[in-house]
Design brief:
This protein is mainly β and 128 residues long. It contains no helices and 11 strands. The strands form 2 sheets. Strands 2, 4, 5, 6, 9, 10 and 11 form a 7-stranded mixed sheet that branches. Strands 1-3-8-7 form a 4-stranded antiparallel sheet, with no helix packed on it. 0% of the residues lie in helices and 45% in strands. The relative contact order is 0.31.
């Protein structure tokens, strides 16, 4: 069983930075792509960023491009989301997820349904 545990959320003022992390159990973390999504009450889960198993390919949602950076350290079984220039509209629960199956993949990295394991989420609140 794979477990993903997020940490590093919190409360920050607009313009500030946070770096949530996502630590995975098991020894196969490095074989899988991973992604970050966010969700606010009453809204669908929104794609934030994704990264390939090697870290060589990255994708970003339009609303975070140029402000957020996704990365991973496979030796530590941990992924990161560096969030800079935060805005109040970034306020959400942030979830990390593991993409189902090793490559080649079917479906889009932007689609939440292609991820099979999810963390419990970490709250990020940006005050104005």
């Amino acid at each position: 069983q794979v477990q993903l545990v997020e940490s590093g959320g919190g409360l920050v003022q607009a313009g500030g930075s946070l770096r949530p992390s996502c630590t995975a159990s098991g020894r196969t973390f490095s074989n899988y792509a991973m992604g970050w999504f966010r969700q606010t009450p009453g809204k669908e889960r929104e794609f934030v960023a994704a990264i390939s198993w090697s870290g060589g390919t990255k994708y970003y949602g339009d609303s975070v491009k140029g402000r957020f950076t996704i990365s991973r350290d496979n030796a530590k079984n941990t992924g990161y989301l560096q969030m800079n220039s935060l805005k109040p509209e970034d306020t959400a629960v942030y979830y990390c997820a593991r993409r189902a199956g090793p490559p080649p993949y079917s479906g889009s990295a932007y689609d939440a349904t292609v991820y099979d394991y999810w963390g419990q989420g970490t709250q990020v609140t940006v005050s104005s």
